[in-house]
Design brief:
The structure holds 2 protein chains of 2 kinds.
Chain A lengths: L1 H9 L33 E2 L4 H4 L30 E10 L9 E5 L25 E5 L5 E7 L4 E3 L5 E3 L2 E7 L7 E7 L17 H5 L2 E4 L10 E4 L2 E3 L15
Parallel strand pairs in A: 2-11, 2-12, 9-10
Antiparallel strand pairs in A: 2-5, 3-4, 3-8, 6-7, 8-9, 10-11
Chain B lengths: L19 H5 L27 E9 L10 E5 L24 E5 L6 E7 L15 E7 L7 E7 L3 H5 L17 E2 L1 E4 L2 E5 L2 E2 L9 E2 L1
The chains are: A mainly beta, B mainly beta.
The structure holds fe (ii) ion (FE2).
Fe (ii) ion binds next to strand 8 of chain A.
Organism (chain B): Ollibium composti
Protein name (chain B): Protocatechuate 3,4-dioxygenase subunit alpha
Keywords (chain B): Dioxygenase, Oxidoreductase
Chain lengths: 249, 208
């Protein structure tokens, strides 16, 4: 119960301003699609109101038993081809505290680098046993894990010979809508990370490195699956000890 | 040297890409049988309080072309101005209204459509009331970090005029980019909210 109370207090302070220099800017001409899709006016900066400091919450009861198992959740007549992996980690806030009850959704290409999507034009084949989506909710310590196969790299129309490094897309809900985040996870040791126009939208190399999951031999399942560890940090809140104004209520 | 602040950095954003639907609306894009239904598809239960409304619109790029691969989430208060969220401190929201919706823009027309209810007013930090509004969050290929904006209601002129958030828009000529006109037809009450990523009528986006 003490923990729950701490959570309640933690959920009341206002959020630290987002460090926009750590994120990619909207206009990044090396990623051509951003050119016509990037707002050009300055964003209107505003401390969050109750509209942004609240957010939807999802329950374990909304999930199915195979939702975090991409090896089995689309299986038709067997298991998908590819390197079996476990991806696990913690969702923390900027204060280093775990975020329990966070919904993570993830999607990826198959082992050949092909997505199951009607707009996908890459010639690599679909895998009849691989859908490419999954989801999970963090436990009380902010931990999550899922099982999948390692996605392949794939070419994409940007430059004439641009390839995406192997990656998994992540969507994360914290406790407040203002923490909403979509990002991508890359794999330790992949030389293609540093040739990718989408990775390079992130100006600071240390920030891009935050997206590279570490090979985690200690959590590898012997004779079964390699493990990668990927921690995600969501925006954090001020301590209410320092709030000098009443909440708007 | 000084002591360290021991703060972590927020994980940087990356674009949702062209295949965001696989992860977030898999049934919509033909991946059947993994989830019973796409999250956020239905916001309003039969017993929900409040005026039923439909919100439609498009997301337009700098050439005026609608995005056919965008994904939009909305978040809003219920008819009484309360959020269906564990961190809502002001009271219990309507259990028949989720307040959160998720829809793709149509692959042919680029139109999005939400069936929701008209929200009540919620307070600003200092206790003044904001005008009724719906928070929008837009992701797509070519958008490197999700865009936050708000939709306000054209028929709430008095509330809009005193809304402390709208008052923060420095260039008043840009306020109308946030206000959706209302129409009433045989299908009920509808609001149209086009979001312009660039150009003369670029929508006001928030760093919030
Ligand atoms: Fe991708």
């Amino acid at each position: 119960m003490a923990d729950k109370d701490t959570n309640a207090i933690r959920d009341m302070g206002s959020f630290y301003q987002r460090d926009r220099a750590w994120h990619p800017p909207a206009f990044t001409p090396q990623y051509k699609t951003s050119v016509l899709r990037s707002p050009q006016h300055a964003l209107l900066s505003m401390e969050g109101t109750v509209s942004e400091m609240t957010g939807p919450r999802f329950g374990h009861g909304q999930l199915g038993p195979l939702d975090n198992d991409l090896i089995h959740n689309f299986s038709r007549d067997g298991e998908p081809i590819g390197q079996r992996i476990i991806v696990h980690g913690r969702i923390l806030d900027e204060n280093g505290r775990p975020v329990p009850g966070a919904l993570l959704e993830f999607w990826q290409a198959n082992a050949g680098g092909r997505y199951r999507h009607k707009r996908e034009a890459y010639l690599a084949p679909l895998d009849p046993n691989f859908g490419g989506c999954g989801r999970t909710i963090t436990d009380d310590d902010g931990r999550y894990w899922f099982r999948t196969i390692r996605p392949g790299a794939y070419p994409w129309p940007n430059g004439v010979n641009d390839w995406r490094p192997a990656h998994i897309h992540f969507s994360i809900f914290g406790h407040a809508f203002t923490q909403r985040l979509i990002t991508q996870m890359y794999f330790e040791g992949d030389p293609m990370i540093w040739q990718c126009p989408i990775v390079s939208t992130i100006p600071d190399r240390a920030a891009a490195e935050q997206l590279i999951a570490a090979l985690d031999r200690n959590n590898t399942l012997p004779m079964d699956a390699l493990a990668y560890k990927f921690d995600i940090v969501l925006r954090g809140r001020r301590s209410t000890l320092f709030e000098n104004r009443m909440e708007g209520n | 040297m000084v002591q360290k602040l021991d703060m972590l950095k927020e994980t940087p954003s990356q674009t949702a890409g062209p295949y965001v639907h696989i992860g977030l609306t898999p049934n919509w894009c033909g991946i059947d049988g993994v989830y019973p239904e796409d999250l956020g598809r239905v916001m309003v239960g039969p017993q929900a309080e409040g005026e039923r409304i439909t919100v439609t619109g498009r997301v337009l790029d700098g050439s005026g072309t609608p995005l056919k691969d965008a994904l939009i989430e909305i978040w809003q208060a219920d008819a009484a101005g309360l959020h269906n969220s564990p961190v809502e401190r002001r009271g219990a929201a309507d259990p028949h209204f989720s307040g959160w919706g998720r829809q793709p823009t149509d692959g042919v027309t680029g139109e999005f459509r939400f069936e929701t209810i008209k929200p009540g007013r919620v307070p600003y930090k200092d206790g003044r009331l904001q005008a009724p509004h719906i928070t929008f969050w837009i992701v797509a290929r070519g958008i490197n970090i999700g865009l936050h904006t708000r939709m306000y209601f054209a028929d709430e002129e008095a509330a809009n005029a005193e809304c402390p958030v709208l008052a923060r828009v420095e260039h008043k000529v840009r306020v109308p980019t946030l206000i959706a006109p209302r129409s009433e037809g045989k299908d009920g009450v509808a609001y149209t909210f086009d979001i312009r990523l660039q150009g003369e009528k670029e929508t006001v986006f928030f760093d919030v």
